[in-house]
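Appendix B. One record, verbatim.
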Amino acid sequence: MTRVNKAHSAPRAGSRRWLATLAIGASLPSLLIATEVRAQTATAAEETAYEGIEMITVTARRRAESMQDTPIAISAVTAEGLTARAIDNVTQIGDFTPNVKFNSSVPVSASNATAAIFIRGIGQNDYQLSADPGVGLYLDGVYISRGVGNILDVLNVERIEVLRGPQGTLFGRNTIGGAVSVVTKKPSDTLGGTLEGTTGRFNRIQLKGSIDIPLAEGIYSSFAGFYHKRDGYVKGVIPAAPDLGDTDQLAGRFALRLEPSESVTIDLAVDGTRARENSAPNVAISIDENAPAPQVWNAVYSGAPGICANSANAARLTDQRCYNSQWALAPYRHGGTFSAISPVFANGNPEPYQSASDLNIWGVSGTLEWKLSDALTFKSITAYRKVTGFWTRDSDHSPASIVQTNSDWTQDQFSQEVQLLGDMFDGSFNWVLGGYYSDEHGNHKDLVNIVDAVFLSGAVLDGKSLAFFGQGTYEIVKDLNLTAGIRWTEDKKSFGNANQFVVDAGFLRGAPFNPDGSGLQDGDPLMGPLGQTSTIKDTAWTPMVSLAYRFSPELLTYVSYSEGFKGGGFTQRVFPPFAFIPSFKPETSTTYEFGFKSDLLGRKLRVNGAVFMNDYDNLQITVNDPTLGFAPIIQNAAKARIKGFELEMQARPVGGLQLDAGIGYLDAKYRSVDIRALNAGVTTATKLQNAPKWTLSAGASYTIEVDGVGNFQPRVDWSYRSRVYNDAVNNPLLVQDGYHLVNASIAYSDADKRWGVTVGVKNLTKEVYLGSGYADSFGGVVEGVYGRPREWFLSARYTF
């Protein structure tokens, strides 16, 4: 089927409070200009005493330009900023970026390498192969199409850019909420490198290094490596229960830069990651022994039905053969033994059932940039990536065999993008035209065990995406620029049901669960007759337009309109069986935004902000709909309106002192819900998941120079997230109230900046907070993943 998304009509007037917010935002430019004029005279002599705030170059519009010249709500952090905050992977930038939330462990998944990214309340909390993310993740311009494997290590990174709001024109596919762009350092033409070693709590050992090696004139190479190992922070309470949340990763990257002429640059890169870890640190928050699966276990399979099935017998709460609240040991303990009574399940898929979160990733990319003339440049980005994984989940978190999964994952993607960038009319008009193609294949074998019944509930997916785009910026008059662009996208997905059938009906054998009312038997399909394939094709036009005016060299303001699109997909998990392969439609969003960029007081103070309103339609939410069965399914169930603002500040008021702060506000509400949402428990009063009203952060560092010794830099970082609803139906047990995180460190560097040592503490105040969670009504368990406890670390580095 074909679906075409059309432009939405303009929204009705908002509330007075919202209009007042817009008015305040609109008045900021004049206030900032006044502040600038008053301050410049008073501080002119002092401004020359030390450097101002770093100017960051970004490529958010597919060409290199200053972040302060880019009329987009964008945050960027450089390699130096990542080091100062002791950031190891991309997910950690969510702690200090307004209106951004990273879930480092996705509900229902047991993989440690799967993150859900939400920007301005938009994202996707399900990792399955047949559902697309809501925020695009890019590595050197290459789109990472799946959530599995998207927790990228900070390996030779130059900067990370976070673009808020739909990026449907230049980035395109599945950037309905925004995009995160990771840019690596290019090989240098001089020999040099860094080496860093870190130790810390949980027996942490981490080594990271990189080296640039010029091979000849115009041929430069670099190598980077990363090794990280530490023990788990969720402890098993019985001998057979392993510690979860450990780290055991090895990653490497080789890059080659070729400059055959002054007009041609070729960048080649190969990267790889290998992880061999225990399952994700899920723990049981609550257990209902009266749910269907626990009742069967306690009465039939526990070996002690007289104790376990007798609610009046207090001994059941201490007898480890029984399944009940004795195993609800959150936040940092669990009793899962990763054992199953079904030999079919225990024997493997493809490996025997055991605690595991294994991952292999490798990718190769090539970027050609050819300057055809002073005003015309051709660029090509070609890439191939492959991910294989094996992970398991003991959802009952006990020695019982209630609900368990065993996943085997294979996915690969090829992508090709071409761009033609030009300048005309003496530089007053610049433009980019391009095309994009990707081809993806995936096979997910998700073996699910319920007591002694076993189901294969996976996916065989083939996907293709084709897009053409164009965008131009024209200077109407001096300092007034109009930018307009549009993208056409066609996504085609085919879902095969070869991994959808009953392996062993177990205790459900003969139960009338089939669509025709017949009894359940081994080999029965879960989605129509086996061998079927369903195909959907979605097409969309996603335009954008913005008007930017630079009042002065210090102040840029803009207004913009943009649309976003996220492709439809298929529901991978169903039970009882369906007679067909269920699918869902695309999401769309329309955003109206006003923003400003300012560098004040001789670039000692930077204040950037944006006010926005987003109309969000056909939300794809993961719910348990009792009218359709017991499994979590994805449905288009609602419309929402999300309003809010972001404000970011950096300041260097005196030499050596660096201040950072950010604030984000979201007013996210459902405008309407349909019967599918109502059946699952979602109403217009329900709060959107992963959309905290307030996100705040602040950081301060001070460099102390000691003659003949070097410099010392103490640093403190604080962040706050207000109440977070971790599932679509707002289960009270999965609501995380507002919480604070504090990190502190002190770094030393010698006078030549060759040697350095940093000692620090993360989560200094020992905050206990829930990062993600899931409620299973059939299994009777509410489970979740909690953030890491307080950890100290000590790092030493050498630069040559």
